[in-house]
C-alpha cells in the first residue's frame, strides 16, 4: 500500500515537473518570438478621438484623425512615417492641409509633430492627418485601420482607427 502511494506521489511530481518544463519552454518561445517582432512601447502618449474616414470604392488614398496627449514631463516627437500593414496600404505619412494662394493642398510634415509636455495635439479634417497611400482596399464603415506610430526616442504606439462614414 505504501509503495503504491509512493509511486503515485512520484508520478504526480513528474507530471508537475513536466508541465512546469512545458510552461517554461512555451514562455521562452513566446518571449523570443516577441523579441523578434516587438518594439519599445511608448509610455507617454495617450490617444483619443481616433477614427478614419470612409473612402469611396476605388480610392487609392485615405485619411485618419486622432488626438494625442503627451503625459510626459519632456517633449515628444511623432515621426511622419508610421507603419502600416501592406494589406492595408503601401505607405502612411503625417500630412498637414495648408492654404496657399487660396488653393488648399496638403504636404507631408517631414519634421514630425512635436508635442510639448502635458500638451495635446489634434489631428482633424482640414489640419493634420494620417495619410494612407496605395490603398489595397477601401476603408469601409465597420472596419478598423491599424497603424503603428513611431516616436523620435525609438518607441512606438499601435493605434486602431475605426472607419466612420462622415456623411451620416
Ligand atoms: Cu494628406
TrEMBL record:
<dbReference type="InterPro" id="IPR058248">
    <property type="entry name" value="Lxx211020-like"/>
</dbReference>
<dbReference type="InterPro" id="IPR036182">
    <property type="entry name" value="PCuAC_sf"/>
</dbReference>
<protein>
    <recommendedName>
        <fullName>Copper chaperone PCu(A)C</fullName>
    </recommendedName>
</protein>
<keyword id="KW-0732">Signal</keyword>
<dbReference type="Pfam" id="PF04314">
    <property type="entry name" value="PCuAC"/>
</dbReference>
<dbReference type="InterPro" id="IPR007410">
    <property type="entry name" value="LpqE-like"/>
</dbReference>
<feature type="signal peptide">
    <location>
        <begin position="1"/>
        <end position="31"/>
    </location>
</feature>
Amino acid at each position: 500500500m505504501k509503495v503504491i502511494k509512493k509511486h503515485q506521489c512520484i508520478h504526480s511530481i513528474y507530471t508537475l515537473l513536466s508541465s512546469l518544463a512545458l510552461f517554461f519552454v512555451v514562455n521562452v518561445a513566446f518571449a523570443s518570438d516577441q523579441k523578434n517582432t516587438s518594439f519599445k512601447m511608448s509610455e507617454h502618449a495617450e490617444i483619443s478621438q481616433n477614427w478614419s474616414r470612409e473612402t469611396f470604392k476605388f480610392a487609392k488614398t485615405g485619411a485618419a484623425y486622432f488626438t494625442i496627449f503627451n503625459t510626459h514631463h519632456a517633449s515628444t516627437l511623432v515621426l511622419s512615417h508610421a507603419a502600416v500593414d501592406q494589406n492595408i496600404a503601401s505607405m502612411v505619412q503625417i500630412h498637414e492641409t495648408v492654404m496657399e494662394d487660396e488653393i488648399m493642398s496638403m504636404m507631408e510634415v517631414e519634421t514630425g509633430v512635436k508635442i510639448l509636455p502635458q500638451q495635446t495635439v489634434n489631428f482633424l479634417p482640414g489640419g493634420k492627418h494620417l495619410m494612407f497611400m496605395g490603398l489595397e482596399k477601401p476603408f469601409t464603415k465597420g472596419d478598423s485601420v491599424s497603424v503603428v506610430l513611431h516616436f523620435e526616442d525609438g518607441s512606438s504606439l499601435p493605434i486602431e482607427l475605426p472607419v466612420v462614414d462622415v456623411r451620416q
